[in-house]
Amino acid sequence: MTKTILRALNGEVLPTPPIWMMRQAGRYLPEYRATRAQAGDFLSLCYNPELAAEVTLQPIRRYGFDAAILFADILLLPQALGADLWFSTGEGPRLSTITDMAGVQALKPVGAIHDTLSPIYETVRILARELPGETTLIGFAGAPWTVATYMVAGRGTPDQAPAHLLKDTDRPAFQALIDRITEGTIEYLSMQVQAGAEVIKLFDSWAGSLKGQDFTDFAVKPAATIIAALKARHPGLPIIAFPREGGEGYIGFARATGADCVAIDNSVTPEWAAEHVQVTGCVQGNLAPHHMVEGGPALDDAARRVVKAFGKGPHIFNLGHGITPEANPDNVQRMIDVVREGAA
Ligand code: CP3
């Protein structure tokens, strides 16, 4: 029997939505913290295929999610393209910055990325072997705009101002950067699929800061290019796009990019997304992650509301963004019970 997530991505309306969770392998789980301590730091964990496969499997063993997402990070591609990357504790990622055309030209050619990324493909191969037969394996990358925001600023920023500045003052350099990331992403994801990833997700976490024509040029167009190239190479490959906080940009996003499913964040209501986004196909989302910290009756109510709002069309249950380190693992189980059994 076809896996539930693949059925939903194919447009089927299931009696119970399949479920997985963004950042489901992460610091809220004691077993993740233990394996991470064994690996040393976060990047060593990403590049250690046995341990990265182990942390990918941990939430599957504990909760029986319908999908496993490869354990890696969207910033490994910039590193493979030649950026320096490190994670300073408590402060998030740091990278060398790109501020002009010379910086873009100094990046490595796209063909060189596999030298750095080959351990990730090995993680995928291990997972394809070890996952339970009913669990779908999701590979992923960052979308070009989001990856570019980190490469230009050298860090996460609240408003992505450095990337906006480069975009608005040196369009050729910014476009060259977007193009290089787009090409690298196609090669990276294609190798994940060859290694055994069954579904691909593109994370555009900062899509919401692109307005008007910029949204079309830097959220829609690069996603459409990547999706078309992947589908040409891997016919039938299902792809989930996540233009986070895209607002009105969510409307028609699937059609404009060729994505099979659009992941919805929790800045919009599930009723709005059902009416305006689910009409064109499968959606994923969108329980607010704070419920995984707080739990209680509000969690039950909010989870039921998401299931009900999306119940008439194809739907994959998920959070609206990644689970946070403060989350209580018991609340995750409660969410699953409510979604799968309507738990009273
Ligand atoms: O979802 C999963 O379980 C799969 C693995 C995964 C990670 N990052 C592991 C991770 C995925 C899919 C990502 C995507 C990612 N990484 C995004 C897009 C999704 C989103 O959350 O918006 C972004 C923007 C990044 C970049 C990144 N990586 C940041 C900003 C940080 C630091 C912030 C933080 O949460 O600490 C990371 C680190 C990171 N990536 C962790 C994990 C489990 C925490 C690192 C640790 O163990 O210390």
UniProtKB/TrEMBL annotation:
It holds the Pfam family URO-D. Its EC number is 4.1.1.37. Residues 18-27, 138-154 form the Uroporphyrinogen decarboxylase (URO-D) domain. Substrate binds at R23, Q24, A25, G26, R27, D73, Y150, S205, H321. GO terms for molecular function: uroporphyrinogen decarboxylase activity. Keywords: Cytoplasm, Decarboxylase, Lyase, Porphyrin biosynthesis. The record marks D73 as: Transition state stabilizer. Pathway: Porphyrin-containing compound metabolism; protoporphyrin-IX biosynthesis; coproporphyrinogen-III from 5-aminolevulinate: step 4/4. It catalyses: uroporphyrinogen III + 4 H(+) = coproporphyrinogen III + 4 CO2. Gene3D superfamilies: 3.20.20.210. GO terms for cellular component: cytosol. One of its GO terms (biological process) is protoporphyrinogen IX biosynthetic process from glutamate. It is found in: Cytoplasm. Belongs to the uroporphyrinogen decarboxylase family. Homodimer. HAMAP family: URO_D. This is Uroporphyrinogen decarboxylase.
